Amino acid sequence: MRKKHKITEKKEILDSKDLTDNMIRGGYLGVLALGDIGLTAWRNKRKERK
Amino acid sequence: MSKKKVLLIGWDAADWQIIWPLIKAGKMPALEKLIKNGVYANMSTLNPPYSPMLWTSVATGKTPDKHGILGFIEADVEKQQIKPVSSLSRKTRAIWNIFHNQGLKSNVVGWWPTNPPEPINGVMVSDFFQKQYQKSKGFEDWPLPDGVIHPESFKEQLKECRMHPNEMSLEQVLAFMPTYTPQKKEEKNEKDGGVFTLSKVLAQNVSIHAAATRLMRTTEWDFMAVYYDFIDHMCHAFMKFHPPQLKGLPDHIFERNKDIVNNAYQFQDMMLDRMISMVGEDTNIIVMSDHGYESGNKRIVKMPKFAAAPALEHRQFGMFVAAGPDIKKGEKLFGLSLIDIAPTLLHMFDMPVGKDMDGKPILGMFNEQKKVSYIDSWDAMPGDFGEHSKLPQNTLDDEQVMQQLIDLGYIDKPDEDKKKNIKRAKCDNKHNLARVYLGKSDFATAKKLLYELIEEQDVDLVPYFLELLNLTVKEENYEEAAGYLAKLRGLEKTFLYTTDIVEAKILVGTGKLKEARVVLNKAIAQKPNKSALWYELAKLNLAKQFYKKAKQDLEKAIAIENDNARYHQLLAHTLVRLEAHEEAIEHAFISIELVNYFPEAHYTLGEALEKMGDLENAKIAFETAARLKPKQHHRANKAIENIEEKLTDAIELTDKVAYKHRENQIVVVSGLPRSGTSLMMQMLHQGGLTPLTDSEREADVSNPKGYLEYKPVMSIHKDNSWLEKAQNKVVKIVAPLLNFTSPAYRYKVIFMTRDLTEVVMSQQKMKGEAKTLPLQLVEKFKKQLQLVNIWKDKEPGVELIYVDYKELLNGEDATLLKITDFVGIPLDIQKMKGAIDTSLYRNRVTATNESSTES
């Protein structure tokens, strides 16, 4: 059985306000590492901010 | 191995030298998890180490002369242009073609080179998917051309998985280089400080990752292969900034960029973490690279200007990790090559391996050992293999892929003269093919190609002459080599290539040792950090039998480059000559661990083990050397003969004694099973010595007076701490276990001897087996006695006398006095005699079926 990924588990990453987080883990890179779901979520978030 | 799933992840250029420190610091937890739950290994690359050639070898199990991908680009004679290599250039079926034929579904993402994508059962996202920018400004205006994905129906949903470099925020890039501030004065003139390169490489790999995760989530698959060039491209761009700081690199640039490579590995690990989270327990995962990347002293500060020069920083060893339901746990594997992957995948899916494949299944990684099945060739099989039925229209923009290759330094910018470009591409690929043959030690074919190349006009002949120079030195054809060296120096007035080493080799080969030494010393004075120079100097010193100097040279070479198998092998060889055998064994092992396919290292290991008296293992090492050598390994064969003679010749057993009592001595009664050891124990016990026994093994029909044994002896190879209790006592230890005694104590060993035929027959009878004499067992026992004899001579704390069983039964005073004198304690000889019961000596060759005290 394939595990179902829950984007909500990574909510803290998506809500991170510290975009210049120097830590390689987390920040918006963490979102990109999630693959297609992360990329879509990041694009949506960016649209909201605009 | 039932039908399970396999996820194969390619990390171009990933290297253990970067990975291990990151794992140690807890910064690559996903890979660490796989290593802990699976197997890991060095992955040996092929020559030349160019990615399109290597990843095609991974996918086909064949070397480039067979698969036909011979570089980054190729000539399109019809269109009179050069173009990136494509799936159409491949001459043999890839693993996904075979899986298609066998009814498996494969998803292949970004694999190099897979454009145009093949119509396989599953989805193929070609390596052009993430590189097609079509002069677009950003994601909103970024069409995905046809012909990049099979089937086309996936085009729409995968289109949005691409990330455009212009989408990348500065903050995302800054995560890799946190101290970068474009406002700083000293950085204003430095273009963009690598920001664009980073964002482009990152965007392309995020695109691959997003497409792969989309397919993992939304499709059914049996096999999935995903290729990332992230680490390779980041290393090409930023390895020069990685610690330790290279000479001449300004501090502020070093500070800004020093963590980029490590951060790239961490991001790759984050992507792996996501992949692992998406597969179930039925999936075997393989993560591997095609080569490593120099991160220390061998980094090239100023890259020479010739095609594919950046590949000079590729290291011989990449990495390999596998974990999953079929994979062993916690083991390191040895001797892996890129060509082994396809045969391994076929074996995992219970399919036969093509006999025309150059690789072999990595059987050591599997829990279950299954016999490998073979067919002559998958290429000869009729049927549907998901291949192109007609040449697809190439609608794509090769230009952008070409530009990327130019940016990375893999190819030169094409000339205005198209014919010149085509000629150069053809020559480069022929040169690469020659290097493939060189790697396969097919010198004749390589030479033929190189001879053709040096006749070419209007191309740079230097690389071909260099190759011929190295080839002829390998062949020990020093006269021809000297000619090429002279030719090269004539071709280039300001000669840019390092030829010190090859010049020294020619001088050594022609007996001019003094001149060779002058050349090497001069080169070392200029480049003391070049390990190869120290290695050559060591060889020179070895030739003169200056072993101590050779040792020092090799230690310097290893200090500079500690994972070079040749250096460790030669140091082991030198240490054997210096009689430092244990140290020699250590270096021989390091060498073999680095390159298993290294007959000389196995031979040296054999030499060292033989000197240490470990004849059995020495023989195995010599046999391995002989097996690995493509031609007959005469020295190894002779060494095996010598060992066999030593082991099987008539054994001359000599006592090693000092007739005096040693403080806290341990008296050991030993011998082969059924050679009278129990009788000797009983006699010593009666005579006044205290036996170390737990009486666990009770008297029986074979030994009615009891065995006087101590159970922990049986596991002495795991734990010998109990020997402390044996001090001032007598304990029985059978011959094969003597080697595991601790050197911390002094031993007085009374070793029982008996006609070997009688020993074997007695054992056979005790086991209730046939009365025929197994000759092999007799030979084995002979070897055992020889090993004890060598052990006795080698161990300073061991004294040993041989006592013949028959003489003991006769109870002669001389025999008993010899024993008491040896033990050094007054024993009651009469009581010792009383323990003898001659009626129990039943297993003479003519014996009847009765019991005895012979064990």
UniProtKB/TrEMBL annotation, chain A:
The protein's superkingdom reads: Bacteria
Q: What is this protein called?
A: Uncharacterized protein
From TrEMBL, chain B:
Keyword Coiled coil part of the UniProt annotation? yes
Q: Which residues form a coiled coil?
A: 537-564
Q: Which Pfam families match?
A: Phosphodiest, TPR_19, TPR_8
Start-end of the TPR repeats?
A: 599-632
Q: Which UniProt keywords apply?
A: Coiled coil, TPR repeat
Matching Gene3D superfamilies: Alkaline Phosphatase, subunit A, P-loop containing nucleotide triphosphate hydrolases, Tetratricopeptide repeat domain
Q: What PROSITE patterns does its record include?
A: TPR
The protein's matches in PANTHER family, at most eight in alphabetical order, are given as: BIS(5'-ADENOSYL)-TRIPHOSPHATASE (PTHR10151:SF120), ECTONUCLEOTIDE PYROPHOSPHATASE/PHOSPHODIESTERASE (PTHR10151)
Protein name (Swiss-Prot/TrEMBL): Uncharacterized protein
Q: What are the top taxonomic ranks of the organism?
A: Bacteria, Pseudomonadati, Bacteroidota, Flavobacteriia, Flavobacteriales
